[in-house]
Each structure stands twice: as C-alpha cells, then as structure tokens.
Amino acid sequence: MLFSNDVQAEIARVFSPPLDRGYANQMSLLYLLRTDLQNQYGQEGGTPVKVKSPLLTCLGIMVGFELLTKLWSGNHEISSSLTEDFLSKVAQVQKSKAQALVQFRHALAHGYRLGTKRKKDNKFYSFVVDDTSNYHECISEIDSQKFLVDIRQLKELFLSSIEEYKRLLEADFNLQKKFMVCLANLGDIQITNPVK
C-alpha cells in the first residue's frame, strides 16, 4: 500500500480522476471504481454515451456513494441511515429521495432486481431505470412505491458529490481525521496485469 501520513497527499491520490490509459498497478478504491464506471458510461466529463450495462452501472454508482460515506464518516462499516445522511448532507438530496436511493442500492445488490422491501417498516420500493437523460433529477417519485432513476443524472450526482466531499474534506480537520482513519482500514487495491 502506498498509504502515507500526509493528508493532502492522500486526498490528491484518492481523488485523482480516472485516466484513459486504464489501471495503475496500485490504486485507491475510489480511483478503481471511477475507472470501472468510466468504462461503462464514457468519460466522466465527456459527451454522454449509451450505457453498456445499466443495472451494473447503477450498482457501481451506489457503491460509490457508500465508499464516499465511509470516507466521510470515518467508519469502514456503515448503515443505511449513514448513507442517507451523506446523500442528504453532502449530495444535497431530499431525505425521502435519499432513502429511496439507498433502497435502490439494496434492490440491486441483493438480487440484482428493481424492487425491494425496507426492513424497518416493510415498505415496498419499485424502480424504473432510464438513460435518456430527459429528467432533471436522478430519482423521481412516480407514486408512493415507484421511483424512476435516471442513470445520467445519478452519474452527475455521484461526480458532484465527489467534488463536494473533497471540497469539504480539504477545509475541515475533523473530516480529514475521519478520512485518514477510514483510508487506513479500507486500504488500496492492486491489479496485476496478465503477461501477454
């Protein structure tokens, strides 16, 4: 692991944008996730392209929100409510939509499906996924149980959340302490390229 005690160096390393050339030998989890997602939906800041794997892409983005929540909170094991807090406080998502996004993540992660029942109250959530970017929000309520998720808007929310969290992190010593503790617990990942 290339981990150091220099918080500014670690912030720069963890938040470095993905490059076209693919993977480095050793990288932060956020860098790896952003690189993988870029392979699904095109350059982060580029012209939108047809999403190759819509559900897999959405799951990757939701995992990204969880990873940001871990770094933000300092905890490498988090709850749904903590992810909802991150989405509300950092990503500026309305609380009810933050709850629906977390349930969307659960539906995808626990069965690769578009419906789930929330454990605490058995409320059912159903989702429709769209990648036409005809919507202004990443998640829109169709009725009390059904939500539309716009992949392109979800991507934009994820990318803006990365930037907002980074901005907050650079200015707040307490967030930096939490970031460094969580980073030490999460570690990095190493990809070994096969010999050709």
Describe this structure in words.
The protein has helices at residues 7-14, 29-41, 54-73, 80-89, 95-109, 151-171, 173-186, and strands at 26-28, 115-117, 124-130, 139-141, 146-150, 188-190. With 196 residues, it is an alpha+beta fold. The protein has one domain. 33% of the residues are buried.
Gyration radius, in Å: 17 Å
| Main sheet: strand order | 2-3-5-4
- Total domain count: 1
Task: Please mark out the parts with pLDDT under 50 across 5 or more consecutive residues, or reply none.
Answer: none
Count of alpha and pi helical runs: 7
- Please state the structural category: alpha+beta
Task: Report the oligomer.
Answer: single chain
Give the overall shape. Answer: globular
Order of SSEs, N→C?
Answer: HEHHHHEEEEHHE
Strand fraction = 5-15%
Instruction: Report the biggest beta sheet as strand number plus sense, adding barrel if it closes.
Output: 4 strands, mixed
